[in-house]
Amino acid sequence: MSIGERIKKVRKELNLTQQVFSNKISTTQNTIARYEAGTRTPPNSTLNLICRTFRVNEEWLRAGVGEMFLPQEDSNLLDDPSLDELDKEILRIYISLPKELRDSLKEITKRFAALYNEKNNPSPTVEGVTRDSITNEELELIRQSRIQKNINIDNNSGTINF
Description:
By secondary structure, this protein is mostly helical. It is 54% helix and 2% strand. It contains eight helices and two strands, in the order H-H-H-H-H-H-H-H-E-E.
């Protein structure tokens, strides 16, 4: 894969148009199109700017080695004193997952929250998610996620007790 193809892959992964991508690095859409097509080679200054702006791994951008993006730095969220080490590790792992897996986990989490709220709050805070919309696979994930809470699941009825 060429540098131009890797630039395009970064842009697509970030869900940006050539115009928006070019604006963020102070160049033109036409220039990005030429880089992506391989008709123009980006200067080192542009490659460095892409890496800084979008947290791209420079070695990956230049040579295709390693991961596309740099690992996320610990944010203020990870400094929250209410989080234990397992909470922080779960957040780090989540951040490092591909977008498709993060999207799947978000859906499962919304459904899990709806079940929790249904039990503890008469009006669930997650719209459109009911007990009947939870799949057997999601119930199994919930069963396996019993880390620090006492969560009981009746295998016959599928009832979840917190």
